[in-house]
Amino acid sequence: MDMNQYLEVFIEESREHLQNVNDQLMRFEKNTDDLGYVNEIFRSAHTLKGMSATMGFDDLAQLTHKMENVLDAVRNHQLDVHTEVLNALFESVDALEIMVQSISEGGDGQLDVKLLVQKLQRIVAEEPVAQHAASSIEYDELVQTLLSQTADQGFNAFEITVQLERTSLLKAARAYMVFDVLEQAGDVIKSAPTVQDIEQEKFESSFIVILVTNESQEKLQASIMEVSEVESVKIAAVPVKKETEMEGLVSPEVAAAIQEVTVSAPSKSPVEEKRQPSNNKTIRVNIDRLDSLMNLFEELVIDRGRLEQISKELNNSELDETVERMSRISGDLQTIILNMRMVPVETVFNRFPRMVRQLSKDLGKQIELQIVGADTELDRTVIDEIGDPLVHLLRNAVDHGIEMPQARLENGKNEKGTIRLKAYHSGNHVFIDLEDDGAGINREKVLQKALDRGIIDGKTAETLTDKQVYELIFASGFSTAEQISDVSGRGVGLDVVKNTIESLGGSVTIDSNEGYGSRFSIQLPLTLSIISALLVQMSEERYALPLSSIIETAIVQPKEVMHVHGQKVIDFRGAIIPLLDLKELFIVPNSVQGDHYSVVIVKKGEKTAGLIVDSFIGQQEIVLKSLGHYLPGVFAISGATILGDGQVALIIDCNALIK
Fold first, then answer.
1. Which residues share a beta bridge with 554?
2. Longest alpha-carbon distance in the chain
3. Shortest CA distance to 305 belongs to which of 326, 321, 291?
4. Residue numbers annotated as active site
């Protein structure tokens, strides 16, 4: 593995540890009596420090080392947790994230952290952390019996006290190196602190071991001192009773335990036993490799469609059987590949608690963010795009939705507002709901703003339902903010949210109850690469309509078609919906009107329309291919696919057709 591969692993693992620190800090802030969170934070910070020092990122290592001092003081009850402590730790995480991001972008990861380091040092200095020397080691009955047996075999027993440099950033690693030296010389019988505590760096800077060996005291001293960052070594011979002197003094329990222990030199130490690899059943795979695998499989799907068509044309039973089996196997393979690309939405949700905490602090509000269904999975291409829209919606909820604490109390509410982010599967879609218990949407205020900006006219305003009024906030540049702030009201509006979600083949709807809160519901397809579609014929051309947009198909007689303001409409289940003739829309040549209309009923949110085609071909799984740079922005066409006979079918963007 070259250095670049090490670097990739370092970046990925650093991000995971920083996310864990973030999560645990958020939980600890809510329950400062639970030091289990502090231990989790300490472990991640310690691992990050070790990795950073190994890779040569000194600023990262230095800052995490100072964080460890604060965390150690907290978990040892030597430092009271208050706002300044938590804010300093959060600021440290922010700085670490900046440095890791710099490294991921090819930088050196350097950042001026002097002021932050001083702040952490000042916090610890206010309530100094006691420096604990290694505890004295206990010679219990089992240890004494083992030592007496080794004495009879001619081995020496030494009590060795190792003092590391107090400035060492890799105490556990240095201790492991010392143990490695000792293993080559003999057998470690016991240590203080325990091996587990040493490995987790739960010691200050010194530790004691009992070693059984054939080596001389001088040689041991010289070998240990060769380990980097070892300050001093004290070795003392252990006076041992011979086995004959121990007769009658050993309990049956200890005697039984001794039967399981054989002392020989050299042997594996407990540290080495603990470091044996675990049964890990996951591996890291570069996402580019998954993209390449997906691209190859997309070609296989196209060829599969071609084989199925050839099989039907030849009507050969053996070929039919083989193609059917290949289709079944490739279908299973498709499921596996798509599942490999699925990523939990928590990879997006994880950054929101910190963001809401900071925004609520800046605005002087009290807000609790509840996250439900973070393990819900989406294709990574959707995950990559959904983050920014959710950020916009969250900032909107924090700024416009949740009221100030005093206002909430006056309205009989809890002074702390709640925002609930929920993800869940339903059919071939994932839904993400963002709900708050804030002020809700003021219908008249939204309507007046829309009138002032010329988005609608007075006559239209009188006919709008509540939901239609709420949807006006998605208009470009719409904002009800009285003044521009760093949080929202910057003239950007929520049109970015709607456009991005619809470009992903999804939709967003709003429900609100003034005075009680609002809910934004986002519907997204599970994947964008391979989709189920309805193939339709128009003259000599074929088009594909995503099944996710289709309600049903229908045959409509000409006499059922009405005209309203020059627009064809039909009565569909009690509702008047527009009819769009795709042959006219896409200027399909040689089109001839038959004696009936073949209609595909499609939806966009709560809006519905009927699309007139010549005939229905059938349902098929297709591979969505981009039109490339030569045909950008073609109206109502989201891409193309290659059919089984090698011809190209354009994929219709139903969202673009419904206004």
1. 599
2. 113
3. 326
4. 46, 68, 396
Cβ(458)–Cβ(447) below 8 Å: no
Reported as a single tens digit per residue, the pLDDT across 373-401 is 999 988 887 888 888 899 999 998 999 89
Question: In the numeric block, which tokens belong to residue 27?
Answer: 């939980």
**CA torsion, points 280, 286, 291, 297, in degrees to nearest 10?**
-40
Q: What SS3 state is found at 6?
A: helix
Alpha-carbon distance of 53 to 170, in angstroms, equals 8
Measured distance CA(361)–CA(100) in Å, rounded: 25
Place of tokens 């939204």: 446
Give the up-direction half-sphere exposure of residue 238: CA atoms within 13 A in the CB hemisphere: 29
Instruction: Report the alpha-carbon angle 280-283-287, nearest 5.
Output: 160
Q: How far is CA 117 from CA 168, 441, 452, in A?
A: 17, 45, 52
Identify which has the larger pLDDT, 526 or 44. Answer: 44
pTM: 0.59
Q: How far apart are CA 103 and CA 633, in angstroms?
A: 36
Helix axes 58-75, 83-104, angle to 10 degrees: 150
Closest by CA to 81, choosing from 34, 117, 132, is 34
Closest C-alpha among 158, 223, 303 to residue 642: 303
Cα gap 477→469, rounded to integer Å: 16
Tell me the mean pLDDT in the region 405-419: 93
Length of the chain counted residue by residue:
659
One-letter-per-residue 3-state SS of 215-235: CCHHHHHHHHHCCCCEEEEEE
Q: What angle do CA 380, 386, 389 make, to 5 degrees?
A: 170
Query: What are 230's two structure tokens?
Result: 């070892």
Strand boundaries in 40-166, DSSP class E = 156-164
The CA-atom distances, in angstroms, between 351 and each of 83, 94, 374, 391 are 21, 11, 12, 10
